[in-house]
Design goal:
The complex is a heterodimer.
Chain A lengths: L2 H19 L2 H6 L7 H8 L11 H21 L9 H24 L3 H22 L6 H22 L6 H21 L5 H10 L8 H25 L5 H10 L8 H8 L1
Helix pairs in contact in A: 1-3, 1-4, 3-4, 4-5, 6-7, 7-8, 8-10
Chain B lengths: L2 H4 L4 H14 L5 H12 L5 H10 L6 H26 L3 E2 L2 E2 L1 H4 L2 H19 L5 H23 L8 H26 L4 H28 L2 H4 L5 H4 L5 H6 L3 H8 L7 H12 L3 H21 L5 H15 L3
Antiparallel strand pairs in B: 1-2
Helix pairs in contact in B: 2-5, 4-5, 4-9, 5-7, 5-9, 8-9, 9-10, 10-16, 10-17, 16-17
The chains are: A mainly alpha, B mainly alpha.
Organism (chain A): Rossellomorea oryzaecorticis
InterPro entries (chain A): HEPPP_synth_su1
Pfam families (chain A): HEPPP_synt_1
């Protein structure tokens, strides 16, 4: 299968997910849920089989994993901030629950009890890690990174394992972690406060002095560099990697773009 | 008489469910454990597990398989409570600080999502696809009901039908499904689990109407929250709908908002209590209860049937 075919299939699934998540009243008050196309591409990977298109059933499986992802992301928007209107907050809570319930309903209708179990287990782990990150419960950067890895990867990793594609999980997990760190890096540069940055700052903080931006940035970049190397090694090791799959990972990982860590160092002097 | 005296013969099994609930919410995260336990230990009627256990007695009862449905339903209900407290900005539940009040919204959201996931995980111990289809459709309806409740807040032109549909989704369906899943999980005949669904639905409707009456008639101490909370949050319940048939009372009710003082609230409640709204609401609640009792007539005669009847009557007469 070519990468363009991949994209075409991802488009169809994207539309299906949009349709399923549509709720007219929610739409009036809260932002439409963001559907991450890259994640759809990755969830397609277990079903890559020659030239054939994904089946209706496979499309539903992929969509349910996406419903869950969207549900969790929606609940991330429920904050303690008083800026949002009460109605907005109320509907954001309910939208998240509604999207989760669609995951259960879709899989219940197709009688995929096994996949319900596997994905529920992923949600459980993700929420445990989110609480640890929010409460800054770490003594080392490695511990924090491990939890971010779980938060970013669990749904897809459990999905891959369920469809007997375990061999891709380490590469997938590095890829998702890499991408999240890039986003966190960008947030830091834009002086945005995130739960991750707060957790990292709390590990790096010396006595009562808060960790400065350079220190946090350097910790992110060091990790990014390590993960990038890991990914490159894995892409070389897994042979033969079908060209479309290589392209899929490279699309998600802009190593060749100006965002590479070495270039960033050069740009920032 | 206390509710749990009615089904005291289930005590051993209910204790087992309670232990199972405790272990179900156990987590590697210390804070998550604390938050979930905080909610679990606040107690509750555990009415859904009780209905599961009782209904299962109409089939081949085996606590080891039936407990999965009982625990799953209670966990799903618990998760919805945690989320509801964020939605309602509630400080107290059963007289204790809510998770969002004790910690914050974010911890409440993570805890709610965690408990919900645990509920579904428990449910997957039941391999019967029909059970999952029934429960999943119910959860979707429950969500739609909650969304409709927000949509209908402070909407004074709503009618009885809007209210009934809302409480059906909000409360009655989960109780109905508790009865149905209990029967399904013990392999009871289809006719029995359909009857039990109807019974649970009618009991649930009656239960919610009673709850809505109590919001106006019970004391803050009994409710664990200020009296008239529904009204001050814009929830138009059955007694309010009836009270609004009187134009003068309607004008008073329409002036209520979240900023209404306790003194003003007391006066509005007093006006509602002196109308016929409460009595008429009781009559509707009683009508659903009678329907529930009639549903029971079609079930095999046994001790469980008598217990279900007693629970239904208790719910109809409860004072808080």
């Amino acid at each position: 299968m070519k990468f363009t075919d991949y994209n075409h299939q991802a488009n169809i699934i994207h539309h299906y997910i949009e349709e399923q998540l549509h709720h007219s009243y929610l739409k009036e008050f809260i932002d439409q849920p963001y559907i991450d196309r890259n994640r759809i591409n990755f969830l397609l990977l277990p079903f890559m089989n020659g030239q054939r298109m994904v089946t209706q059933q496979e499309m539903k499986w992929i969509s349910t994993a996406m419903f869950l992802h969207v549900a969790l992301e929606t609940h991330e928007k429920v904050t303690i901030s008083e800026q949002d209107s009460l109605k907005e907050r109320q509907l954001t809570v309910l939208a998240g629950v509604y999207f989760s319930s669609l995951y259960y309903k879709t899989l219940a209708e197709s009688e995929d009890v096994g996949l319900i179990e596997v994905l529920s287990s992923a949600i459980k782990k993700i929420n445990e890690c989110k609480i640890s990150m929010y409460k800054e419960e770490y003594t080392s950067i490695e511990e924090l990174m491990e939890d971010v890895r779980i938060i970013e990867t669990s749904i897809a990793a459990h999905f891959y394992e369920f469809f007997h594609q375990k061999e891709w999980v380490p590469l997938l997990s590095d890829t998702f972690l890499y991408n999240r760190l890039l986003q966190e890096r960008l947030a830091l540069k834009n002086t945005q406060d995130t739960i991750f940055i707060n957790a990292l700052a709390s590990i790096l903080k010396q006595s009562e002095e808060p960790a400065d931006e350079h220190l946090i940035l350097s910790a992110i970049d060091t990790t990014l560099e390590k993960i990038q190397k890991n990914i490159e090694v894995q892409l070389d090791r897994i042979k033969p990697v079908p060209p479309a799959v290589r392209e899929l990972f490279m699309e998600f990982l802009p190593f060749t773009e100006p965002l590479t860590t070495t270039k960033l160092y050069a740009e920032e002097g | 008489m206390k509710l749990n005296r009615i089904y005291s013969f289930l005590k051993t099994d209910i204790d087992q469910i309670e232990k199972e609930l405790e272990s179900a919410i156990e987590s590697d995260s210390r804070l998550l454990n604390q938050a979930s336990l905080h909610l679990l230990q606040a107690g509750g009627k555990r009415i859904r597990p009780v209905f599961v256990l009782l209904s299962a007695r109409f089939g081949d009862y085996n606590i080891d398989s039936v407990k999965n449905a009982a625990v799953a339903l209670e966990l799903i209900h618990m998760a919805s409570l945690v989320h509801d407290d964020v939605i309602d900005d509630a400080e107290l539940r059963r007289g204790k600080p809510t998770i969002k009040a004790q910690w914050d919204n974010r911890i409440a959201m993570y805890t709610g999502d965690y408990i919900f996931a645990r509920g579904l995980e428990y449910m997957t111990h039941i391999q019967n696809p029909e059970a999952h289809q029934i429960l999943s459709r119910t959860i979707v309806e429950l969500c739609k009901g909650e969304i409709a409740q927000i949509k209908d807040k402070y909407r004074y032109d709503q009618n009885l039908r809007d209210y009934l549909l809302r409480i059906k989704r909000k409360t009655a369906l989960l109780i109905a499904v508790s009865c149905q899943l209990g029967a399904i999980s013990s392999g009871a005949p289809e006719e029995v689990h359909r009857r039990l669904f109807r019974f649970g639905y009618n009991v649930g409707m009656s239960f919610q109407i009673t709850d809505d009456i109590l919001d106006l008639t019970a004391s803050e101490e009994e409710l664990g929250k200020p009296a008239g909370s529904d009204l001050s949050q814009g929830n138009i319940t059955l007694p309010i709908l009836y009270a609004m048939e009187n134009p003068k009372l309607r004008a008073e009710i329409e002036r209520v908002s979240e900023n209404t003082s306790a003194q003003e609230m007391k006066s509005v409640i007093s006006s509602i209590l002196s109308s016929e709204a409460i009595e008429r609401s009781h009559r509707v609640s009683r009508m659903y209860l009678d329907k529930a009792l009639r549903d029971l007539e079609f079930l095999p005669q046994n001790r469980v049937k008598k217990t279900l009847k007693n629970i239904a009557n208790f719910i109809g007469k409860r004072k808080y």
